[in-house]
Amino acid sequence: MLKIYAKNNNLVNSRSFDIQKDELLPENILWIDLLFPTPQEVAYIAKTFNLDIPTKEEREEIELSARYWEDSTTITINTHVLAKAISPDSNSHELDSETITFMTFKNILFTIRYSKLKIFEEMQARVLASPKNFEDGFDVINKIYEVMVEKDADVLEWIDKEARKLRILILSESKYSHNEILGALSELQELNMRVRDSLFDKRRVLTALLKSDKIDRDIKDNLLIVVKDLNSIVEFNTSNLNFLDNNQNILSSQINIEQNKIIKIFTVATVAMMPPTLIGTIYGMNFVHMPELQYTYGYPIAVVVMIVSTILPILYFKKKGWL
Predict the structure, then answer these.
(1) Which CATH number fits domain 257-320: 3.30.70.20, 3.30.360.10, 1.20.58.340, 3.40.50.1820?
(2) DSSP conformation letters of 279-302
(3) Which one, of 278, 293, 139, 291, lies nearest residue 216 by Cα?
(4) What is the pTM of this model?
(5) Cα–Cα distance, 72 to 214 (Å, whole number)
(6) What are the start and end residues of each CATH 1.20.58.340 domain in the chain?
(7) What's the pLDDT tens digit per position in 227-280?
């Protein structure tokens, strides 16, 4: 589906565009959003505006040259966008990412995407509500990156809150098992790393945009502010990473302590049972000449000795503070 945003005096009008009806494109186009475009729609836009639209394989390549490049007339950007934002009321820890293609040609912005993203819904509302803030496609892409960085910051704040809740569970007696807490901790670490990758990808793109001679000074000034915000968010992301690692270390230490306690109990029990076991084994031998077996009080004496030999090691361990 093609959706076109065109500037008309002081207003921005949006309309869907069907290539099968041979409609004329409106004038003063600001932004063309290609959502789930068909191959025919991609080919139509490429031919109409003489664009070299990247293929699916090119969009997924990780080299910097594949994430951003420009020629004499166009700028092409392939960037990762977090497809599922986390909200405080959400019980889902899943977070996926989508590669979005941004292209600029003669101040027109083209976006190619295969996911419905809240970021774009918000941007579409902003463009229609505040047309004076959007003179060309570069204003739109500037605001899109600003919103994306804000959304990444929201996710990191959510991760920080959840990590602090887990810290409380780890340090207090909780109804949750170590496995459940460790699973939640691992999910938060995965989310944090996903956001980190997204932030680094945006920083590389914005750094390249700032070097472009196709962008006005005012746009670059705004992008510089976004980059500064992004750098502070990267630091917060690193802080989250360290905090989560610290939580994991504390939890691992607690698990080790509990395992050591269990091993200690079995060790003490084994050592305490060795003397009576030895005594019982000796008197269980079937030799003919064993004078103790003929004693009238031989059995109770042996039982008492076995009990005493069990108690003495336990008392010794308590005296040493091992119990």
Answers:
(1) 1.20.58.340
(2) HHHHTT---S--GGGG-TTHHHHH
(3) 139
(4) 0.77
(5) 9
(6) 257-320
(7) 999 999 999 999 999 999 998 898 888 888 888 888 878 887 888 788 888 877
